[in-house]
Here is the input.
Amino acid sequence: MDRTLGREDAVNAAAIQRIIDEAAADGGGKVVLPAMELVLDRGLILRSGVELCGQGEDTVLVKGAGEIYPLSGYHNYGMCDVPLKSAAGLEVGMTVSVHDGRSHGGFMETFATITWIDGDWVGLDHGIEMDYSADEAPCLTTVYPLVFGHRIHNAAVRDMRLEGNRAANKKAMGGCRGGAIYFGNSRGIEISGIFERDFWGEGLSFQMCRDVQISDSAFDENTGNGLHPGAGSTNALFERCRGRNNGRSGFFFCVRANHITVRDCDFDANASGVSIGTRDCYNALETCRIENNRGTGVLVRPTPRPTEVHSCRIDGCRIAGNAAEEGRAQIEITSDAHDLVVTGNDIAGAADKQGIFMENTVRDIHVADNVFAHCSRDVAAPAEAIVATVPVIECGYGEWPEVVFRHLCA
Here is the structure.
């Protein structure tokens, strides 16, 4: 049953969350937000079977101010509560992060929902992810994704603008636990018509997910990566998306992000364009425009065996004007990467940078039908690294046997 909300129904995040939860309990359906601008004091939790939709750019969700609540001392792994110096201003149902000075980034932060408050002790809906040291400034922060889901299936978020409001937030959120939009351990997720910007962290992050489709969306001006499929996420399709003016990569393949197609997307004016790394295999980059990034346009990161990059295609892209501040080339292939196909690309650079650079340890790279302009050298690579025969590669988004997903629990 679809639900179309008026402004009187969507007065705050808690009211919207109740309607999302009711929709899920009734078997799913669309929850359609009105044209409005709403400041969120917590993230909206998407549920299985629910599509959260807006009215395009007329529906604007803004992250509320992010406050810091110091812990009163050490607290240890697995506890579903934390002791604070003061819990004033917190409410049950708020989404929060817990970390200390060592834990920003990776999976060491805790992201949770407040379940109870007893004096200055705050209960969480699951155990904290690590020991938080008393001498490392441990704290709880009102840092959260604007829309997120954990362990859900067949859900979508569509047609709205998300404002990260980083100027009003005092701490960042690490990209493995969150982003302006975030999904973890989920499957059958669709994201379309989203225009997101200005989050202190990643624009889009999903971890340990499968069967994800992202289209016609933009993730700009974030302090971290624009788009970040990570931690074993498999079988994802990105079409007509953009990552612009982000503090790190426009598009960042994280650890074991496999069987992903990135098609007809734009990544420009970021710290780097597209970054491919540890166990990121069977991926396809097609007809994208990767231009004017400060670092390398497409970087295959240092990843020695047995976690090297292999079985990927870069085809029909415009890769130009990158590496003005750092990097050796428009495309840079390092470490033990092998069995890559680089064909039909338009590659343009600067007089002091190369078109394609390969380290001496790279092997079995097929390079053909690319057009080069304004590069100091078209291809800088050891002769034995390049092969005339096209490697047989089955890669990208599609129908794959279940063995491809056996590393995931979702």
About this structure: The mean pLDDT is 96.
